[in-house]
Amino acid sequence: MSEHNQTNPPADGPLWGLLAEVSTPTELVSAAAKVRAAGYTQWDCYSPFPVHGIDRAMGTKPTILPVLVFMGGITGTGLAILMQWWMNAVDWPWIVSGKPYFSLPANIPIAFELTILLASLTAFFGMWALNKLPQVWHPLFRSDRFAKVTNNGFFLAIQADDDKFDREATEALLKEAGATAIEAVHLDADPKKKKMPRQIPAFIAITAVAALVPFACIAKARTSKSSEPHYHIIPDMDFQPKAQAQQASALLPDGRVDQMPVEGTVARGELKADDHFYRGIVDGAWATTFPEQVPPSKESIERGHQRFNIYCSPCHGLSGYGNGMVAQRAEKIGSPNWTVPSNLHQEYIIRQPHGQIFNTISNGIRNMPSYGAQIPEADRWAIVMYVRALQRSQHATVADVPPTLRQTLR
User: Is 158 helix (H, G, I), strand (E, B) or coil?
Assistant: First the structure.
């Protein structure tokens, strides 16, 4: 025993326990398993870093800390939801863009943040409380050898108040478990030495008071008024080097922030330089052909058929004779200001160039409104194409039918 006690402090108090040092983490795990198998309960292992498998070897049971963390998180969620409900629906109900005073999806981010905050604080302070920290007077700190635990030392300590503790038998067990050094650890004989250093309570008190200062400032700001501007902790968030609308600017010649666009400026995507496609005009006259963007095809006619039924048939009818549902209703109620929709099969409409019909759809005519805002250019040309097919279907002759199909006609 003598070679193991060279670093012992004076045995001036009752025996606290035995401290054993082993050489490697593997030996620490093996020693822990043997101590556990021997039936000891008041003991612990110490290492400068986490050791894989040590919990299983020691038989460490799950603590209540996960439950406390969960309760802290749930508390944060509830407080966040309650706080936002009270602020938005009770204390200051304010309608923004027609939204409800309180809507759960809008409050999820704050609830998430407060959940994480209280859960992490519970984990931090709960760990300290469950481990009875801080213990600056712990008997192990009186051992010079134990100082290596923060660097390269691996230790196992058995307390003397364990029911199975017997100094000689416990020392023999530790030697058998692979201890390279064993020393007795004693308590301080003077109870005053176990008092916490004054600096620690003072630091805790100062920190607690300082943490209340922001809340006190917030409470004062809520109940007071001032003609002075508020403090700008981060001034670039309030005074950014930027130009706002309707402000003066010394940078530009006319001294204004808002500048008139350069003459001839066209918004991106609004050039529409192709008169044939966008206006139905070719060389200053109504186009008699379809633009290359919408070549005649079965797909284009079907698209025009669909758009015609949506936008045109309510007035002009599905067949284009001007007898749509709206027209029939107007005639039935005898509206004095009603203008009868055009029959698309009239001779003068049949003779109109494609571009003129496109222009009528785009800009309207008489009581017919403009559909340029509702129907894209390509769909307008598709409607014109379908109108031509509709007109031809109502004025077709046998000569228009392919010879191979004429035999099927009655």
Answer: strand
